[in-house]
């Protein structure tokens, strides 16, 4: 299955800036989506593949910095490269603390923008791969029965089969069967790997039955 194409989303209310940035990005092969407001982005949402947002700080309606904060609150992952003609140090500090890839003041060097966009897209690729792997682990975990989830939560704490049997009030043979099923369904033969999966799921002893 091929990866969805990378997209650079440009939000700037100045048509000349949009056009110039569009030409620059397309000249090196990027797919570009041009928007003149945050509202336009909210209507379409982020694309499926890797993406990077080139965002003007001062926009009609919601500012770029406020939009960055909103994305963070909504837990929407999207690397941002800020561009502005009216930047100052407090603004840049706020942007970078908020996780921005770069804060560029107009007029900026073409290469600085291209470098920042490349970095943003690479960050997003890594994040998307991580999310894909997590979705696979979640799906496997959801295939476990409630008892198997309980056993998994205890196994990854390092408890022995006989200890788990005592904890759950079942026979040691039953625990071995459940443990084998857990390893098979989770797609691993290694206890350390199973523990890493549990970490990804934030699986803690006592809430295994309800977590998914």
Word description of this protein:
This protein is of the alpha/beta class and 212 residues long. Helices cover 54% and strands 12% of the residues. It contains nine helices and five strands. It has helices spanning 15-27, 38-44, 64-73, 89-97, 110-142, 146-155, 161-168, 172-186, 191-200; strands at residues 7-11, 31-35, 51-56, 80-84, 102-105. Helix 6 (146-155) crosses helix 8 (172-186) and helix 7 (161-168) crosses helix 8 (172-186).
Q: What is shown here, in short?
A:
The protein has 212 residues and is α/β, with parallel strands linked by helices. The chain is built from nine helices and five strands.
List keywords for this structure.
5 strands, alpha/beta
